[in-house]
Specification:
Structural class: mainly alpha
Oligomer: single chain
Helix content: 55-70%
Largest sheet: 3 strands, antiparallel
Distance between the termini: 8 Å
Number of helices: 13
Radius of gyration: 21 Å
Length: 365
C-alpha cells in the first residue's frame, strides 16, 4: 500500500507566481483609477478591486486542493460551461451588439472566459489518458473543441475562439499525438482558411481589413487602432503621468479600461512603464512554463502548458492589437484589463498551478 503525503503545506509554493499576479492586478487597478479619476466611471476600479479580492480567495482555496482532483471534475466543469454557453444563446445579455453575458444576481458572467480554462482541463485529461491515438480519439478531440467553439462564434466572439483554439493547439502539440497527424491537420487548416473566411461576419471581415490598412478608414473602422497608436506614441520615454494622458483622459480611445488598457498605460507611463509591464507578463508566463516542466504526471504537465498558452496568446494578441500588429478582437490583457469573469478565472488558474508546484514531489511509504 502506498501513502502519498505532501512535503509541507506551503513549502514548495512558487511565491513568484503570487507576487507577479498581485503586482499585475495592482497595476491594472491603478491604471483604471487614473483613467477615470474624478468621474463616475472610477467605480470600475472599485469593482475590479472587489473582483481581485474574490479571485485571491479563490486562488488560495484552489491552491490547497490536490490538482489531480480536477482530472475527475474536468468533464463536469466542461459540461456546466457548455450549458452556460447554451443559456447565453437563448437569453444572454447583449452589450455592444454581442450576446456574450449571463446576468446572475447583478454579476455579468461571461462563459467564454470560463471556457478558456475549462477546455484546458478537459483536453489535458483526455490527452493524458492516452499513449496511442485512434481515429475515434481524433473525432472526440475535435468534438470537445468544436461544440463549445460554435456557441462562442455565434455570440459572436472571434477573440475568445482564437484563444481557445490556441490553447487547444498547444495541448495537442504537447501530447503524444503523432507528428505526421499534426502536420496533416495544419495542412487541412491552411486549405480551409479561404472557406472559413466566407463564414465570418461582416464586422470580422472589416476588422481584418482594417488591420491590414487602418488608415483606409480613420474615422470609422480604423479609428480605435489609430487612436491607440497615437496614445502609445505620445507617451514618449516616461509618459505624460498618471491621469494626464490626453488621448485616454479625453476619451479618444474607446474601451480604454479593457481592450486598449495597454495604450492607456503606455501614454501615461511611457516606454518605461510599458516595458516593465511586458517584462512582468512574460516573466509570469516563464514561471508558468516552469510549473509545467516540474509536473510529475502528464495531466499536470498538460495543464501547465495549456495555461501558459492562454496567458501568452492573450498577451500577444492584446498588445499586438494596441500596436496595430494584430486585428482588434476584444481580448483582455491578463490580470490588467477590467473584467470580473476573466480576472477570477485567471486567479483560479494560478491556484491550480500552485497546487502542481506544492505536490510535484511527495514522500511514498
Amino acid at each position: 500500500m502506498k501513502l502519498r503525503l505532501p512535503i509541507g503545506a506551503w513549502g514548495r509554493f512558487d511565491w513568484w507566481l503570487y507576487s507577479l499576479t498581485l503586482l499585475l492586478v495592482g497595476i491594472g487597478i491603478a491604471v483604471i483609477t487614473a483613467l477615470f479619476y474624478g468621474t463616475p466611471r472610477v467605480s470600475l476600479a472599485v469593482g475590479q478591486a472587489i473582483y481581485a479580492g474574490i479571485g485571491v480567495v479563490a486562488m488560495l482555496v484552489v491552491s490547497r486542493i490536490d490538482y489531480r482532483n480536477w482530472r475527475g471534475l474536468a468533464p463536469i466543469i466542461y459540461g456546466l460551461i457548455t450549458v452556460f454557453l447554451v443559456a447565453v444563446a437563448l437569453f444572454g445579455v447583449t452589450i455592444f451588439g454581442a450576446q456574450r453575458w449571463l446576468s446572475i444576481a447583478g454579476f455579468q458572467l461571461q462563459p467564454a472566459e470560463l471556457l478558456k480554462l475549462g477546455i484546458v482541463l478537459v483536453l489535458a485529461r483526455y490527452l493524458a489518458d492516452r499513449d496511442q491515438f485512434w481515429w475515434r480519439d481524433y473525432a472526440v478531440i475535435a468534438g470537445l473543441i468544436g461544440v463549445p467553439v460554435l456557441f462562442v462564434l455565434r455570440q459572436p466572439d472571434l477573440g475568445s475562439t482564437i484563444i481557445v483554439m490556441a490553447a487547444a493547439s498547444a495541448l495537442v502539440v504537447a501530447s503524444k499525438i503523432p507528428r505526421r497527424v499534426l502536420a496533416g491537420v495544419v495542412g487541412l487548416g491552411l486549405l480551409a482558411a479561404p472557406i472559413l473566411w466566407q463564414f465570418l461576419a461582416d464586422y470580422q471581415h472589416q476588422r481584418i481589413l482594417t488591420f491590414l490598412n487602418p488608415a483606409a478608414d480613420p474615422y470609422g473602422a480604423g479609428y480605435n487602432v489609430l487612436q491607440a497608436l497615437i496614445a502609445v506614441g505620445s507617451g514618449g520615454i516616461f509618459g505624460a503621468g498618471l491621469g494626464q494622458g490626453s488621448q485616454s483622459q479625453l476619451q479618444f480611445i474607446p474601451v480604454v479600461h479593457t481592450d486598449f488598457i495597454f495604450a492607456g498605460l503606455a501614454e501615461e507611463t511611457g516606454l518605461v512603464g510599458a516595458s516593465i509591464l511586458l517584462l512582468l507578463l512574460f516573466f509570469l508566463i516563464f514561471r508558468v512554463i516552469r510549473v509545467a516542466r516540474l509536473a510529475k504526471d502528464d495531466f499536470g504537465y498538460l495543464v501547465g502548458v495549456g495555461i501558459a498558452a492562454l496567458l501568452l496568446s492573450q498577451t500577444v494578441i492584446n498588445i499586438g492589437m494596441n500596436l496595430a500588429l494584430m486585428p482588434v478582437t476584444g481580448i483582455p490583457l491578463p490580470f490588467v484589463s477590467h473584467g470580473g469573469t476573466a480576472l477570477i478565472t485567471n486567479f483560479i488558474a494560478i491556484g491550480i498551478l500552485q497546487s502542481i508546484i506544492s505536490r510535484h514531489k511527495r514522500i511514498t511509504f
